Amino acid sequence: MLYGRLDALREQTRTRIRDVLRMREENPQELSERESYNALYTDKLAKYTAAENGLCFGRIDDVDESVRYIGRIGMWDDEVDSEPLLLDWRAPLARAFYLATPASPDGVARRRHIRTRGREITALHDEILDPDAADALTGSADGSAETVSEGVAGESALLAAISAARTGHMTDIVSTIQREQDVIIRSHHRGVLVVEGGPGTGKTAVALHRVAYLLYTFREQLERSGVLIIGPNSTFLDYISQVLPSLGETGVVLSTVGDLYPGVTARTHDTDDVAAIKGSMRMVDILKTAVRDWQTVPSAPIEVPFDTYTLRVDKALATRARGRARSSRRAHNKAREIFVSTAVDLLASQYRKAISAGIDGGHDLLDRDDLADIRDELRADPAVRGVLDSLWPMLTPQQVLMELLSDPDRLRTASGELLAADEQKRILRARSALFSDTDAPLLDELAELIGIDNDDDDEAARAQWRARIAEAQDALDILTGSAPQDLEDDLDPEILMAYDLIDAETLAERQQHRQYRTTAERAAADRQWTYGHTIIDEAQELSPMAWRMVMRRTPNRWMTIVGDPAQTGSPASAGSWNDALEPYVAQRWRLQGLSVNYRTPAEIMDVASGVLAQFAPGIDAPRSIRHSGHAPVIEHVGAEELAAAAWQNLAKWRDEPGTAVILAPEDLVEQVRDASAHDDANTEVSVLSVREAKGLEFDSVLIVEPGAIAAQSTRGMSDLYVAISRATQRLAIIHHAALPAGMDQAASVR
Ligand SMILES: Nc1ncnc2c1ncn2[C@@H]1O[C@H](COP(=O)(O)OP(=O)(O)OP(=O)(O)O)[C@@H](O)[C@H]1O
């Protein structure tokens, strides 16, 4: 019945699209209407298509015998409008499906998980939450009904989901979201929400489902302003890219920090020590000075022929013009106009003096209009312009950064005491070098200092817009301060009111920018776009400079930040959540934890915990929810055999379902890749460094030389912890050097 209804809705939408395309538009207004209807229906059709798999995955029977079906989208009966046939999983009425427990059944007598393949039901599983009411229920799932205890909900459905072989792309968890996850996904907290949890606790999954939930609940606002998701690398973004479309949501901007600056793609990767320097807050002052260093005064006067006279741009003239321009406090390119007009004024009076020299009352030769003409001529004069350009040139962020990082003198002057000589040496690079992954935050900072707008005419409107957001934020902060701290209670109407204010301003400002491109397309191309909500995954890795860039894009500070400090790999990291967030929101951020590991089986987590205990003795690894039955294996081999042994070991798993990876120290990755070149059977297997595997997971994980991984940086042990916890089923370790402390205890030696 539900699929029949879905088919009917699809057909209806297709017809609407056809009708819209047939419409003949007479004027721009009609064209715009046609475009927006077309976009609306196309979007709807995509949602219906995405709902095809697992359309309905749950049912709850209430003690009063009413029944609710839960699925990927909401559907209503055409005839009886008020009766939902299927509840969207995000609807308030569907929430009991995720939250009801035997201790607090919330009126639910039975929860049923429905598994389907295509349009066929393959399994039903019932949980009886209220045994007294259960007798009255009809249609029990034969033999699989269980009276559940507190703990995980839908245990067999969950175990089936997390034990399934992986495909290389993350899948949605909509049918098995757990209580602690649901609380985060549906949180109405309007400020910064930090979600912290160990490996495999579903942080990424929760963040993505939260996006889907927020888009459902605050659709009007977020569709206009857009949602930004920041991930650690492009492999990760590719890995998660299917989740939102499978939930019927598109139009979200996914980016790494390195690619967030429009028009610049990071092509190289900085070493840890370089990243740490370039990511530090010291760069704020260094860049400020770097831009000021382009505002020069001549040491010797520059002579400029003009008319039949020679004018002189000397130190005093340039210093005066520069002082005027600087004291305007405008960004460099914007202040240039003040520099030029002051200099031109001074040159005009030089000229006046020159032509009147020796003539009694000569200055009266020129009236106001003449002077205005002379100023115009001076401005247009190529020689004058050339000199003024050289003293206060128009700049681009790319040019300033490139010059700064390739010119030792510039770098030394800009750094002052802030960078030691050896630090300067480390970040210097060739003039022709490609942009690296730590450049974007610096370019973004420079764009602010230089004053790069997408559309200069809009600057006033943008400033006003920012000011309004800031006002709304102040109002919100006051309200948040007095709001109840319990997440369950925070549907405070007052808080929504404050944000309604922002919403109104968004509407006012953004309306005039309506174009035919989607919000996501416009947002991604616009450096000054301010997103409605921002999600940062693996946020523990962000440097202070990266935080600045991300915060600039989220002035309303409505953010979900997910991460695990114990998995921090980058020495450039801003440190604790408090260190990272304090400059922007002071103490006004909320922490939510996740405690259950859905990915890594207990046998493998034992090994990971041994490593964790070595470098973070105060932190407990998350509790694994299952055993895989595969004990981790460790093999010692000769130094020359490492790469070959890795592939031989992997061959033993070749018939196992799912995905496999070899994780190697950075300097061995190429060697291990090369060792497989002659074997076609290995083409499906990736060889990655731990950095590249951040956030990913694989059924079989083979780690080469863990001692070298641990030794490769100051965060090496943390990298090793990340590497081990990528496995969903099997783990093998091939080593020649000694194993790092804490590793040998839990693993059985083959
Ligand atoms: N409620 C759930 N139902 C089914 N699968 C789940 C659930 N929660 C998490 N998972 C699965 O567990 C795995 C780990 O989730 P995810 O990658 O989101 O964890 P994470 O906390 O981001 O991990 P890490 O920090 O190690 O990268 C994924 O395969 C995810 O689909």
UniProtKB/TrEMBL annotation:
<dbReference type="GO" id="GO:0043138">
    <property type="term" value="F:3'-5' DNA helicase activity"/>
</dbReference>
<feature type="domain" description="UvrD-like helicase ATP-binding">
    <location>
        <begin position="176"/>
        <end position="601"/>
    </location>
</feature>
<dbReference type="GO" id="GO:0003677">
    <property type="term" value="F:DNA binding"/>
</dbReference>
<feature type="binding site">
    <location>
        <begin position="197"/>
        <end position="204"/>
    </location>
    <ligand>
        <name>ATP</name>
    </ligand>
</feature>
<keyword id="KW-0378">Hydrolase</keyword>
<dbReference type="GO" id="GO:0016787">
    <property type="term" value="F:hydrolase activity"/>
</dbReference>
<keyword id="KW-0547">Nucleotide-binding</keyword>
<dbReference type="Pfam" id="PF13538">
    <property type="entry name" value="UvrD_C_2"/>
</dbReference>
<keyword id="KW-0067">ATP-binding</keyword>
<protein>
    <submittedName>
        <fullName>AAA family ATPase</fullName>
    </submittedName>
</protein>
<dbReference type="GO" id="GO:0005524">
    <property type="term" value="F:ATP binding"/>
</dbReference>
<dbReference type="InterPro" id="IPR014016">
    <property type="entry name" value="UvrD-like_ATP-bd"/>
</dbReference>
<dbReference type="GO" id="GO:0000725">
    <property type="term" value="P:recombinational repair"/>
</dbReference>
<dbReference type="InterPro" id="IPR000212">
    <property type="entry name" value="DNA_helicase_UvrD/REP"/>
</dbReference>
<dbReference type="GO" id="GO:0005829">
    <property type="term" value="C:cytosol"/>
</dbReference>
<dbReference type="InterPro" id="IPR027785">
    <property type="entry name" value="UvrD-like_helicase_C"/>
</dbReference>
<keyword id="KW-0347">Helicase</keyword>
<dbReference type="InterPro" id="IPR027417">
    <property type="entry name" value="P-loop_NTPase"/>
</dbReference>
